[in-house]
Amino acid sequence: MTLAFRQRARQAIADPQLQRLLDQNADVRQQARMEALEELPQSGELRGRARSIRQQVVAEIGAYLDQFGARLAENGIQAQRAANAAEANRLILDIVQKHKAKLVAKSKSMLTEEIGLNAALEAAGIRPVETDLGEYVVQLRAEKPAHILTPALHLSTQDVAETFRRQLGASLGDDVDQINAEARRQLREVFLTAPVGITGVNFGVAETGTLCLVTNEGNGRMVATLPPVHIAVMGIERLVPTLDDLAVMLRLLPRFATGQAITSYVSLIHAPRRAGDPEGPTERHLILVDNGRSELASTAAAESLLCIRCGACLNACPIFREAGGHAYDSVYSGPIGAVLSPGLFGLEKYGHLGKASTLCGACTEACPVGIDIPGLLLNVRAEVEPKPLGRGLRLFSWVARSPTRFRWAQRTAALGGRLLARRAGWITQLPGPFAEWTHFRDFPPFASRPLRSRLRRARRPAKDRLPELEPEEAAPAAAQDAGEPDDRTDRFEAKLKALGGEVIRCAEFEAADRIVGQLYVLGASRLLSWGPVEPILFTVLQRLEREGFPVVQPEVPEGAGGTRPIRAFGEFPVGLTGAVAGLADTGSLILSGGSRRSLLPSLLPETHLAVVRSKDIYADLEGWLRAVGSPYVAGSSNLVLISGPSRTADIEMTLTMGVHGPRQLIVFLIE
Amino acid sequence: MKVQLFATCLVDSLFPEVGEAVVEVLAKAGVEVWFPKGQTCCGQPALNAGMRAEARTLALHTLEALEAEDVVVVPSGSCSEMIRHRYPELLADEPGQLKRARRLADRTYEFSEFLVDQLLVADFGAALPLVIGYHPSCHLLRGLGVDRQPLRLLEGIAGASTERLSPECCGFGGMFSIEMPEISAEMLERTLDRIRSSGIELVAGCDVSCLMQIEGGLRRAGSSVRCAHLAQLLAGREAGLK
Fold first, then answer.
1. CA distances from A329 to A498, A529, A581, B182 (A)
2. Residues of B in contact with A474 (CB under 8 A)
């Protein structure tokens, strides 16, 4: 029997363009991950912590879900459990239909791919639109994602451009910037008009009931902020106990996924729109999907539930690199997919994926939580009846249980080898199933005198002594890590600039002048802004009012349906906000929502101007949470970490800024 | 000091020259080497095929064969890893056998690891004026964390310049090479490309299974580059695996 995986891999190998794209993916992503880890000297310790955090959750999943559920209820997020895919789809459909939505904006969620949500919505006459660029392209082509992180991995720029021309009637060239601009235009309309937004969840925080969303393009923020109803869909195992634990995971997930220290956006969603919030969905729902997970948690494959879906094992796997994601015929491909697919969706269809590995261990080496994927693959193999090779191996094992039989087998094989080998060379054609070896390479003949016949007596040691190594040379001490300068402001600036952000340092007294000046430099005609919640913004707004410069502080009327008033805020070129803090290790700004602190100025315009004070720069997220941050997370219905402009590399790994969110981020750093 | 050589079934049956070189090098390093007659195969092929019962039987057989208290040296990262990590896993539910497995695991060393870390020797006086490509095999590198040891041993060869090849799987993977031959061949091809593009004249490694795959590919491609187990080079031989 030829395995289905093998057949599809054959096709992938025969496709030169796919091979080029897979090579590119592996090379770029691996390089990026290694560089990101070089900058994280404590990564070994962090990985250990991340692993035990995830183990803790998977071991006591029920207790954490109870705690999480209680917090969600207090926070006003309407949570429901779904035992399987059908139930999850029905729950989601009920909500969508209750709001009479015909259009749903979706941000990328592999879980919704797993449960087949789009098909279920379409069957009910509802149009789901994928808004992650790669996922959008794949949806337009009616294909499946080729990679959990990079759904359009298998497509060239030309393929995508052709898809846009054919499916959207767009007139554009084979150019990534033009493609992104077209996607931005098409999808902006969806964000602004869809009555319901559906997102996945990267992590749920059990102690606070917080939903964490990690995105680069900004579509996740759009979908969770603009439509009046937000439905989040999450696997029951994607919990962490505390906010501190979340901070650990956030340091690892983006580094292992794309080599970024942090993604452009990390949203910490805590509640639906609250009194005083200028915008935000009035209803937030969470569908907690089991779909085989609890059952898996009680088996030896429970370890596969530690997975945080970073995709690093796909990028590291030499088999994925040849076969591509579609060869696995499952939403979860690559090494972890070869374990999760049989675990969640059944051995019958997916058991053979256990064989899609040389057990080389590159996956475990790349895994942020150290999942023993080769060990789990061995379990999968153990569950599948290995025939016909199994019969051969059973015979071999019987032979190897006796040295006498073994010696006899060696003699037979040596004799056979002599018949097959051409003179003294290697064998070029083996019989039976072994012919698969010699289709591609030669095989050595068996020795006419095996080692056991040659070593009848023990070998005495030599008399002369060899030079002995110094013990340090035998086991050199680990290199010391160079200390880093602890100038937080400088590090913040350097990191943010490296992400494509701009930093203007200025003193408090001149800040307002510089900001107003920047508006003129940008040629802006109007401004979307926070209210006067702090002195610099107060001065800026006062000056602009005096000068007659049009400024809008957005406030979306509650419960508005039909033609959504939020559209009016969609055309502003520049947004202005403050920030509650900055983070030196990632160059991030932290923006809390709330009264007069609209999320829209940091999301909708092409340029985002932000004010942050150097005294509010913290070393890292843990440091901020410990010092002052935790109350902000609970106090804000939607808190966001912004690290540079909106970005995507979904098409052929070409980095482009501003796919959905701002193209430009200028931070005024007040000293 | 006396050591038992666990030769591995591949070295015993296909590449006895590698085993002889191992014995020669160990003797040079001042240890007495003997070959326990009961040894056959460590059971890894069965385990990798998901046949735990057969793997367990062969693990017990090997425990028996290597029962003597002497240190065990294995010229293979893959089989060392099997004995050290997978035997205790396979026998986890059998307290008596588990104890034996742990004792064996504790006194089992891969060849290069044993020389450098245990015997503290690396300079065998071999001379070989060649560009040598070192292939870090997966189970040796990732399973045992052995990397600097073989490189240090290669450094001790006069006249040789060594390049460490990228640590990517050669595509062997045991039964994988026969069950997924097209992918295995592609992975092999990538390995051969790395060898070709760096002007390597000889490929060295610590696992004959990977070297058999690589040399099989080199020969099929008509290349004159050959593979050798590290022990063969330390023993001053350069002619290839056999």
1. 38, 47, 44, 18
2. 116-117, 120
Give every strand in the sheet of B202-205, ordered side by side.
B161-164, B131-134, B202-205, B226-229
| Helix/strand/coil (H/E/C) assignment for every residue in A231-261 | EEEEECCCEECCHHHHHHHHHHHHHHHHCCC
Can you state the angle between helices A4-13 and B181-197, rounded to 10 degrees?
40
What tokens appear for A538 in the block?
A: 């107060």
Question: How far, in Å, CA of A176 to CA of A172, rounded?
Answer: 10
- B53's tokens: 């019962």
What CA–CA distance (Å, rounded) separates A557 from A569? 12
Place of tokens 């053979």: A352
Interface ipTM: 0.95
A490-509 residues labelled b (16+ CB within 10 A) or e (exposed): ebbbebbeebbbbbbebeee
- Distance in angstroms (rounded) separating the CA atoms of residues A389 and B179: 9
| Interchain pair B16, A454: CB under 8 A | yes
* C-beta neighbour count of A545 within 10 angstroms: 11
H/E run at residue A490? helix A488-498
**Spatial distance between the Cα atoms of A187 and A660, rounded to a whole number of angstroms:** 8
pLDDT band at A470 (very low <50, low <70, confident <90, very high): confident
- Across all residues in chain A, what is the average pLDDT? 92
Q: Which residues of B touch A396 (CB under 8 A)?
A: 41, 45-46
Helical pair A157-168 and A133-140, crossing angle rounded to 10 deg: 60
The one-letter amino acid at A620 = D
Closest CB to A471 among B23, B120, B216: B120
Confidence of residue A2 (pLDDT cuts 50, 70, 90): low
A534/A569 Cα distance (integer angstroms): 23
Tell me the β-bridge partners of A664: A607
Residues from chain B contacting residue A458 (CB–CB below 8 Å): 2, 32-35
- CA gap B51, B227 in Å, rounded: 31
Distance between CA atoms of B173 and B176, rounded to whole angstroms? 5
Are A464 and B29 spatial neighbours (Cβ–Cβ below 8 Å)?
no
Contact flag B182-A9 (C-beta cutoff 8 Å): yes
Amino acid in the structure at residue A666 = I
For residues B49 and A378, what is the distance between their CA atoms, to the nearest angstrom? Answer: 7
Instruction: Identify the burial level of A668 via C-beta atoms within 10 angstroms of its C-beta, where 0-12 means exposed, 13-18 middle and 19 or more buried.
Output: buried
- The CA angle A232-A237-A238, to the nearest 5 degrees, is 50
- Residue of chain B nearest A384, judged by CA positions: B50
How far is it, in rounded angstroms, from Cα B150 to Cα A27? 26
Helix then strand count (H, E) for chain A reads 29, 22
Residue A656 binned pLDDT confidence (cut-offs 50, 70, 90): confident
A441: chain B residues, CB-CB within 8 Å? 185, 188, 213, 216-217, 219-220
Name chain B contacts of A353, Cβ cutoff 8 Å. Answer: none
Among candidate residues A9, A25, A231, A21, the one with its CA nearest the CA of residue A109 = A231
The answer to whether B173 contacts A450, with C-beta atoms less than 8 Å apart, is no
**Residue A444 DSSP class:** P
Residue A485 has pLDDT above 50, yes or no: no
pLDDT for res A120: 97
- Please tell me the distance in Å from A381's CA to the nearest CA on chain B: 4
Cis before residue A388, ω within 30 degrees of 0? yes
User: In Å, how far from its chain's centre is CA A646?
Assistant: 16
